[in-house]
Amino acid sequence: MDRRLRVLWQIVWLVFIVSCKSVKKPYNYKRFPDSYAEVKQEYDNYYHLTGCQSGATIASIGAGNGITEIQISCFNEGIRWYLQEIDSTRLYQFEEVLKYHESVVGSPINANFNLVLGTEDTTHLPNGVFDRVLMLNVFHEIESRRGIMTEIHQLLNENGVLVIMERMGNIEGEIHGDCKYPKLVEDSFLQEMREYGYALDKQQLGEEMSNLMFYSFVSEK
Ligand SMILES: C[S@@+](CC[C@H](N)C(=O)[O-])C[C@H]1O[C@@H](n2cnc3c(N)ncnc32)[C@H](O)[C@@H]1O
User: Fold this and answer.
1) What are the C-alpha distances in Å from 208 to residues 38, 48, 163, 167?
2) Full residue range of the structural domain in which residue 79 is found
3) Pairing with 137, which of 18, 127, 143, 169 sits 20 to 30 Å away (CA)?
4) How far is the CA of 89 from the centre of ligand 1 (A)?
5) Which residue has the CA at smallest separation from atom 18 of ligand 1?
6) In the chain, helix, strand, coil percent, each to 5?
7) pTM of the entire predicted model
8) DSSP code at position 132
9) In this predicted structure, what is the pLDDT of residue 23?
10) What's the gap in Å between 152 CA and the centre of ligand 1?
11) Is residue 1 part of a domain?
């Protein structure tokens, strides 16, 4: 066989084998990982900064389709999650996203997931049970925040922590490229949190280029 034909034949075989092994993505979403290594890299780079621990009870407000919480559960067993959203369409994509990740990881994900539909003003989450409440890339999208931010004090248990992840702006007036909401600026954000009765416990940089920050707060005593 001519050498070029043989190389072409090998490429066709390779493409065929890879396509047989790959798992079909539930829908077109750029954050779906192709491999376990990618899930681990995202966790090691960013999501370990949420401080989620095995066995904890955690609410995620504005969880979207739950992709981040599913990925965190790959490295922390037995988390009892309450994935909360106001957009039922995104929330009900959760089952497909879970199935997809289980096929990428190659085993069932050990966690308990409860889906909760809230409204703009109230979370519909149970009081006093959460070790951690997450707001991942959500705070800037909530236009009237006082109601929900006040409610979160009641949701946390005695040692509970609120974690807010945001891509911060450097000056007032910067806009998020995707959602077009204004970016938060640290000084005014921290001032706003103090007004809601939260004390800053920790602040960590997740990524320099996009100024991705993880802030942990506790209720002021
Ligand atoms: C940018 S998405 C982030 C989704 C997810 N946390 C993530 O990181 O993939 C922001 C989400 O916040 C939700 N959201 C906006 N206002 C909300 C509110 N008042 N309560 C709960 N969720 C809200 C939106 O429906 C949207 O899914």
Assistant:
1) 20, 16, 19, 10
2) 28-219
3) 127
4) 12
5) 120
6) 35, 25, 35
7) 0.90
8) E
9) 65
10) 15
11) no
Residue with tokens 């290594």: 37
Q: How many domains does the chain have?
A: 1
Is 193 a domain residue? yes
Q: How far is the CA of 142 from the centre of ligand 1 (A)?
A: 8
Q: How far is the CA of 61 from the centre of ligand 1 (A)?
A: 7
**pLDDT the model gives residue 20:** 40
Q: Whose CA is nearest to atom 12 of ligand 1?
A: 62
Of 175, 148, 178, 180, the closest CA to residue 164 belongs to 148
The CATH number covering residue 70 comes to 3.40.50.150
**CA-proximal residue: ligand 1, atom 23 (nearest):** 62
Q: Is residue 23 part of a domain?
A: no
**Blockwise average pLDDT, block size 10, the chain, 221 residues:** 70 51 70 94 97 98 98 98 97 96 96 97 97 98 96 98 97 92 97 98 96 97 75
What distance in angstroms lies between residue 3's CA and the mean position of ligand 1's atoms?
55
